[in-house]
Amino acid sequence: MDSDLRLSRPVSDADFERYFSLRWQLLRAPWDQPRGSERDELEADAFHLQVQDRNGTLIGIGRLHRIDDTRGQIRYMAVVDAWRGRGVGTALLQALEQQARDWGLEEIRLHARQAAVDFYARHGYSMVAPSHTLFGSIPHFLMRKPLS
User: Fold this and answer.
1) What is the rounded CA–CA span in Å between residue 52 and residue 45?
2) DSSP designation for 81
3) CA–CA separation, 123 vs 26, rounded Å?
């Protein structure tokens, strides 16, 4: 990842507003989903990360939450199109995985969009099974990675 980029946790209300706005713009708006659909009931207990460019513009986001005592799930990971392929997603993923290790988790699961399956496979995730189809048009696949 470019050394001018900054990986951090959103902390203020303004940080979270920008974070959720980018999540909606990248993962919900293109499919005409309403604002609010980018959030779920696990937000308060989850670990959130963001990446900003040198101007402070948010360019990537991701979240980790616990499934149970040994497993976590990564959700809502996205990078602005212009920044894809430049290490932003890898930096986010590695930081989320490190947080899972810090929590003592043994495995991470995620439901990858078809377009992201190869990205996760390159980072050690294996396909478990086809999952759900989001908004009737975006196939997802359950993937997992042991952390030990």
Assistant:
1) 23
2) G
3) 22
Q: Considering only CA atoms, which of 123, 117, 115, 68 is closest in space to residue 92?
A: 123
Residues 6+ apart with CB under 8 A from 115: none
52-108 confidence digits (pLDDT tens): 999 999 999 999 999 999 999 999 999 999 999 999 999 999 999 999 999 999 999
Full-prediction pTM beyond 0.90?
yes
Q: Looking at residue 19, what is its pLDDT?
A: 97
At 99, is the secondary structure helix, strand, or coil? helix
Q: Which fold has domain 6-106?
A: Aminopeptidase (3.40.630)
Q: Which amino acid is at 27?
A: L
Cα distance between residue 101 and residue 137, in whole Å: 34
